[in-house]
Amino acid sequence: MTDRPDLAAMISPLSRALIDAELPVLHEHGLSMWAYSVLLALDERPLRTQAALAEAIGADKTRIIGFLDDLQRKGLIERTPDPADRRARVLSLTAEGRRVRDSAQAGIRRKEERLLARLSPEDRRGFLRALRALAALPPEEIAGA
């Protein structure tokens, strides 16, 4: 006996639909989903290594090198030698990278607003509060719960 579907059964179709809605916005900005994830992860703070970036976005560190090369070629990120460890690279956004990220994010948020407008203001606040709380949990805590 169940009073609701499993969380994954509800979230997975929603997640796929949100990604499908984001893709045209990202393509308009010349970004893939992984490239956009990199721009979001770098935000206003540089990351010290490609491995740290890969961990932050949940990617294999060998898979993101091509995305980093492309973002650097486009002038959206910089990879500079780490003064503390010359073998490592510090990754950071350029001004153009911030502009592209902000523009893409604004387009995505406009699409999200159409979806969120279907909720009452109270439900919307509660939904976003709960989603933030659950998204902040470490994966091992979710898996082990």
Put the structure in a nutshell.
It is built from seven helices and two strands, in the order ααααββααα. It has 145 residues and is mostly helical.
Written description of the protein model:
By secondary structure, the protein is mainly alpha-helical. It has seven helices and two strands. It has a two-stranded antiparallel sheet. The model has no long low-confidence stretch (mean pLDDT 91).
Number of helices: 7
Mean pLDDT: 91
Radius of gyration: 18 Å
Residues in helices, as a percent range: 55-70%
Query: What do we call the CATH homologous superfamily?
Result: Winged helix-like DNA-binding domain superfamily/Winged helix DNA-binding domain
Number of separate structural domains: 1
CATH topology: Arc Repressor Mutant, subunit A
Proportion of residues in extended strands: 5-15%
Quaternary arrangement of the chains shown?
Answer: single chain
* CATH class category: Mainly Alpha
Please tell me what the overall shape is.
Answer: globular
Major sheet details: 2 strands, antiparallel
Q: Helix-strand pattern, N to C?
A: HHHHEEHHH
Protein name: Transcriptional regulators-like protein
GO biological process, one term: response to stress
Organism: Streptosporangium roseum (strain ATCC 12428 / DSM 43021 / JCM 3005 / KCTC 9067 / NCIMB 10171 / NRRL 2505 / NI 9100)
Domain HTH marR-type: 4-136
